[in-house]
Amino acid sequence: MSDKDTNRRRFMQAAGSAAAAVALAGCAGGDGGDSGESTPTETDESGGGSDTEEPDTEETLSVNVTMGQMDSGLDPQDHAETNTEIIVGQAYDGLMDRDKNGGIIASLATEWERVEPGVARFTLRDGVTFHNGDDLTEEDVAYSIRRIVDNDVGISSPQANDLGAVSEVETGDGEVTVRFDGLNPIVFQLFATNGPVVQQSWIEENGSDFINQNVNGTGPFQLTEYDSGNQVSFERNPDYWGEVTEVDEATLGASSESSTRVNRLLAEESDIVTNVPPQEVSRIEGSDVAGVNPVASTRVIFLQMRYDVEPFSSQQFRQAMNYAVDLEGIIENVLNGFGTPTGQPTLEAFTGYNPDVEPYPYDPEEAERLVEESGHAGVEITLQTPIGRYLKDVEIAQAAANQIDSLSNVSCELEQREFSSLVQDITTGNIEDKPHFNLLGWGNGEFDGSQTIIPLLASNGALTILKNDEVDALMEEAQNEADPEAREEILREANALLHDLAPWVFMHQQFSVYGVSNDIEWQPRNDEFIDIDTVTRR
Amino acid sequence: MSLGRFAIKRTLQGIGVVWGVITVVFALRFVTPGSAINAVAPLDADQATREAIAAELGLDQPLYVQYGQYLFDLIQGDLGFSYIRGQAVTPLVLSKIPATVELAVAATVVAIVLSIPLGVLSATRRNQPVDYGATLFSLFGISTPNFWLGIMMILVLAVEFGIFRTSGRGVDIADVFFSVVGPDPFVDTLLGWLSYITLPAIALGTYFTALITRLTRSGMLDELGKPYVRATRAKGLPETLVRYKHALRNTLTPVITVLGLQLGTLIGGAVITEAVFSWPGLGTLVIRSINLRDWPLLQGSLIVIGISFVLVNIAVDMLYAYLDPRVAYE
């Protein structure tokens, strides 16, 4: 309560100063430019702060982030989407974490090892406390893992598959040992991305309503105010176990309108805004208050083709579709260059990426030849695309469909569908009910090729559109290979094979484009998480 | 019919309308593609996870069971539980009402303050430049989409000149009232509040302003041509009194009716304006719950909007009959 009052009071002072500055600028005929330029990051409400108040106000670093959507409740284990992860991730830690480039780093566990195949052991950090002051215990960590993977512990978590097939969790001597069904070769990749740790007693004593509106983590920020669907405010956790952040306060809000997000940045009301659309980039770059900071994300965009229906059952036809699409042109013209062409399911810098595989070149003549060879000349196909789910999805699909349609022996139409409607068909258990040809995006926060290939392209994958014995065998082998180098080699082979099989029209690696205020220094991460604690003053 | 019976009759009709809203929203689940499970579970969740989540949320029950349960809870004042946000719907929806009402009232105030004087001026200076100007303004107001107007105002007045805030609701009207007695300076608080509310209020109120201007103008012209006005003039009353005490007063009856009805519309109809300005009201809540297939939250929001609309309508009907004794409660 008092925090809210403090924030409001600080805003009043700022508003007063800003109003006075506007009035003065009006009187003097000046440009008033100084009213907002002094210390815009000082408060999220901006304006020049009062110089008559406590001197430490000058030192306060407040960071305001505007995303596309708000959270779906603050329970860190009861959601499965990025915006909620960004919000709860400010306050909750996992056993391990990732650096800016996706590398694995320590978090609540200081050491980790594979004790034997299918068994991983984590050594917990000493002296970690939750925001309520209680110490972190081994039991809390074990409970957190069980609450995620076991439907009988508290909730049916949508993250149930995120940690692998956990069979047992044991504790003792400051260590937590997790046993899996099978090898789980990427156990540490999984734990570096997933598995936020909660306090058992706090969860058990409070109901869902409370847990979704309050926070008790071990992270660098603690909650000060939660205005559901509107705004979440944090302050620095003074007892944080890690490096103390320079940021005193962080506020996360959302606007579904991309122009509103950009306007907030340019009016110095926000310091970081997400998903800047390509057409807005020049407006930000032309301003003197903010810049654009793009980063290759962990999301790949592709057009998937069902292996069991004509004409997509023909490998030649599928390859023809790849030759027919001018990927470079689409990236340049539709995405203003914010994309990297792909030629395999696994992204560069991920485990299993095959550097010898090149994207398909744009070659409409080769495409026409392959269509002829496939025996499907004159065929009519329809590409389905979601509307507004991925950056410029409709425009990308339109361009691709036009290019395919311009082949002399294929007609291609575009069907736009609302994402929730399309996803209903995609997630159906039966491959027979899935669309024949559709655009889809896939984020892979584990930085391991298997996390794309298994769900999307192995015959037992939840979303698969392909059944190929060779791919299945390779993935089976990879999942049972304990030696990382040998496993990487298997995944590379699978990627080369999938390039040739062409179950997708391989499109691009999507970029996350952020607008960032000139008053702060911040580098975005690949995995779309916004680590506010790494923000510093410029 | 007495006022009491009239009120009871209209309330019963209102309950029927709200029940209709609930039923239609429930029925929409049949025709709207996309399951709520997909908003909760990751895309690659296996069938077992999906079924477990569905069971936990009660989504595995037949629709008529869900419907019956919902009505039963509703009678007890419980609007259900948002499975996306993991929170009770009732407090969530109630917490958004002040923002929406504040914006609707502010837009109405903008409309009244601008439109009535403009309408009167336009009528009394008929076929003069002021009248042409007002007509042009009305045409602009009626034909301009409010989201476009909102975006343009943000670009010019907030981003370029920095006079107003681009979005959000950092200071609310309660803060302004508290500043009269509290430690915050009143003028600064008021300016802070105005910096947030002015643009959305204008964006939302412009259409309405144009409408009322036209209504006031035609009403005034009508009244000014009536015999009783000639009689008051003949009595030697000053023109100001003739216009404002007699003619304007009679013009206002239909204006008030439209104002009231429009206020009801504004509560439910500010969806686009709220989205453009990230205004944290019911409209934003409706959009987000539709996007996430959060049916309990959507139903709760629509029920509250429906109830507001019904209440405002009843109040306007009663006020109308009160203002014009020739109208009976029928």
UniProtKB/TrEMBL annotation, chain A:
Q: Is the Signal keyword given for this protein?
A: yes
The record ties this protein, via InterPro entries, to: Peptide/Ni-bd (IPR030678), SBP_5 (IPR039424), SBP_5_dom (IPR000914), TAT_signal (IPR006311)
| Coiled coil feature spans | none
Segments of this protein annotated with the region Disordered: 26-57
Q: Which residues form the Solute-binding protein family domain?
A: 105-461
Give one Pfam family, short name only.
SBP_bac_5
> GO CC: one term?
periplasmic space
| Keywords for the protein's UniProt record, in alphabetical order | Signal, Transport
Q: Give the UniProt family note.
A: Belongs to the bacterial solute-binding protein 5 family.
Give the species this sequence originates from.
Answer: Halobaculum lipolyticum
Q: What is this protein called?
A: ABC transporter substrate-binding protein
UniProtKB/TrEMBL annotation, chain B:
* Alphabetized Gene3D superfamilies for the sequence: MetI-like (1.10.3720.10)
Q: What keywords tag this UniProt record?
A: Cell membrane, Membrane, Transmembrane, Transmembrane helix, Transport
Where does it sit, as one GO cellular component term?
Answer: plasma membrane
Where does this protein reside within or beyond the cell? Cell membrane
Protein's UniProt keywords contain ATP-binding: no
Matching CDD domains: TM_PBP2
Q: Which residues cross the membrane?
A: 12-31, 103-124, 136-159, 193-212, 252-277, 297-323
Kindly give the membrane topology term recorded for this protein: Multi-pass membrane protein
* Organism superkingdom: Archaea
Per the record's keyword annotation, is Phosphoprotein included, yes or no?
no
Which InterPro entries does the record cross-reference, listed alphabetically?
Answer: BPD_transp_1_N, MetI-like, MetI-like_sf
Q: Which residues form the ABC transmembrane type-1 domain?
A: 97-320
Q: Which family does it belong to?
A: Belongs to the binding-protein-dependent transport system permease family.
Q: By its UniProt entry, which PANTHER family does this protein fall under? A: ABC TRANSPORTER PERMEASE PROTEIN, DIPEPTIDE TRANSPORT SYSTEM PERMEASE PROTEIN DPPB-RELATED
Descriptive protein name = ABC transporter permease
The source organism is Halobaculum lipolyticum
Organism phylogeny: Archaea, Methanobacteriati, Methanobacteriota, Stenosarchaea group, Halobacteria
